[in-house]
Amino acid sequence: MLNKLKISAFCNDLEKLKKETYESISYDDFLHLKKIEKRGRICSFLGLATAWIIPNPITAFLISFGHFTRWLLAHHILHKGYNKVPNIPKSYTSKVFARGKNRFKDWFDWLHPDAWDYEHNILHHYHTCEEADPDLVERHLNFCRSLKIPKFLKYIIIFFISITWKYTYYAPNTLSVLDPVRMKKIKHEHIAYITIKNLLDFTNKHVRKLWLSCYIPYFLFNFVLIPFLFFPLGMQAVYFVFINKIIAECFTNFHAFLVIGPNHAGDDVHRFNFHFNDKQEFYITQILGSVNYHCGNDFIDHSQIWLNYQIEHHLFPDLPMSKYQEVQPKVKALCEKHDIPYIQESIFVRFRKMLQICVGSRSMPQLMELKVS
After folding, report:
1. From CA 88, how far away is CA 79, in angstroms rounded?
2. What is the rounded distance in angstroms from the CA atom of residue 289 to the CA atom of residue 311?
C-alpha cells in the first residue's frame, strides 16, 4: 500500500475539509473548553477537600485528574487552538495562558510552559517520528531494548519510568531546547538534552535552570506549602495530605504515560529517515506516524485529554478540542476513500504495542522515502 501513495486527491479533499472546519469555529467551542475546565476544578476541589482525612486512592485520583486537566487545557491553548475563537478572553489565548507569572495560575507543573511549547508544538509536531523528533519513544528506550536481562525486569523499569517520567524525562527534555539564560529557542541540531545521567551536574547551566525554575518551585508548592496549609487540623492532616499528593503524583505521571506514550509507537507506526518536502508529504507522514484511540464523547475524550484524536491533531494542531469530535470521522472517511492507512484502536491495545517497542519485542518499521503520485 505504501509503494506509491496517490495523495494529491486526498490532500485536496483534506484542504477542503480543513477550510470548512476552521470556518465553523465559534464561541461555543470556548464554552466547551470552560465546561471541561470546570470539571477539572471540581475534581481538584474534592480531592484537596478530602486529602486530610486519610490517604486513599479516590482522593489521590481526584487530585491527579484535576491536575492533569490543566495540562489538557495548556496543550490545546498553547497550540493556538482557541486563538481563532471570536470574542475569546485574552487569558485563554496562546500568548497569555501559562505565560510569565500566569504559569503559576494556569498550568503549574514540573514542565516549563515556554520550553514545552517549543519542544512539543514545534520540534515534535514538525519532525514526528523522525530522528529529530525529541519525543521518539523507540530511540529513548534503546537502553532498555538492548539490556540483556529477563523481560519482566524490563517491565519493572518501564513501570518506574511511567510513574516518574514528567520529572525524570519530560521536564529535562523540554527545558533542554531553550537557552537557559535568555530562554530563547535553540536549533534542534544544537540541542544537548539533559538526561537522568546528568540531572545533578550543577556545572551545566541547563541543569541549574531546571532545578531553579521547575523542580524546586513545584516541589515546595505541592509537597510543602499545600500540606502545611492543613496544619490547623493537626500534623496528622499534614502527613495525610502529603501522602495523598505523592500518590496523586504517581497517578498523574502514569496517566500521562498511558495516554501520551502510545500516540506514536508500535510495530505498525512508521519512523521516517527523511523530512517532508511539502504540505502533501507533511499530511501523509503525520498520519503514518500517529494513531488514534477510541473517541467520540466528552467522558472518553476528557479521560484521554483529547489525545485520542492524535491523527487529526497532527493534521490540524490549532483546532479547539470540540472540533476534533466533528472532524475525526470525516478524516477517517477520507483516508478510507483514498486508501491511506488510518490506525485507530483501544488505548490499552496501543499501550501494549508501545510496551513491545519499549522492551524490544517489536520494532517500528522505517520508511526511507515517500513514493507518491
Report:
1. 15
2. 8
216: Cβ contacts below 8 Å, ≥ 6 apart: none
- CA dist., res. 1 & res. 317, Å (int): 26
Query: What confidence category does residue 5 fall into, taking pLDDT thresholds of 50, 70 and 90?
Result: low
* Alpha carbons 263 and 310: distance in angstroms, whole number: 7
**Residues 314, 133: contact at Cβ < 8 Å?**
no
Q: What is the pLDDT of residues 61-106, one digit of tens each?
A: 999 999 999 999 999 999 999 999 999 999 999 999 999 999 999 9
Q: Each residue of 223-248: pLDDT tens digit?
A: 999 999 999 999 999 999 999 999 99
**Any idea what the Cα angle at residue 190 is, between residues 184 and 195, rounded to 5°?**
90
Whole-number Cα distances in Å, 157 to 68, 144, 252, 344, 355: 23, 8, 18, 28, 11
Cα three-residue angle 184-185-189, rounded to 5 degrees? 140
